[in-house]
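Hey, quick one: can you model this chain's 3D structure?
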Amino acid sequence: MTPRIGIGYDIHRLEDRPGTGLVLAGVHVPCDLASVAHSDGDVVLHALTDAILGACAAGDIGELFPDTDPANADRDSTDFLTHALALAADRGYRPGNCDINIIAQRPRLAAHKPAMRATLAALLRLPPDAVGLKARTKEHCDATGAGTAIEAHAAILLIET
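Sure thing. Here's the predicted structure for all 161 residues.
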């Protein structure tokens, strides 16, 4: 077998909801925003799940966990990631490293990046130096730049077990 690379992307609208907060990379980020989503709206884990599924040529998160299924309402996105990792393992692969971009005008994420990176490393069973995580803005361009959406891009390398 050869290594496989997957890429993933997700975007969610944001709503102003005082005291709600966001879940990003499995970490609660306190803020006055909420992700408009059927599940917990974790764009990072959604993009990462799609990257793993893509590397395995196994469809996408919407096919496996449709937002029309009531079982996925408010579901913890770590469930999606765990399922994708199990699928990769069944095919003889495990993560080698990953790289993630979170794009958000708000909230500011720098203070939360260490916890997010540590959580991702634990979920993927990788050393922290195999998990790249960046946060950036859109310089006030488009919906994300206006602060009404949040995006994540993920790339993952799967290697043989």
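One thing worth noting: The chain has a mean pLDDT of 96.
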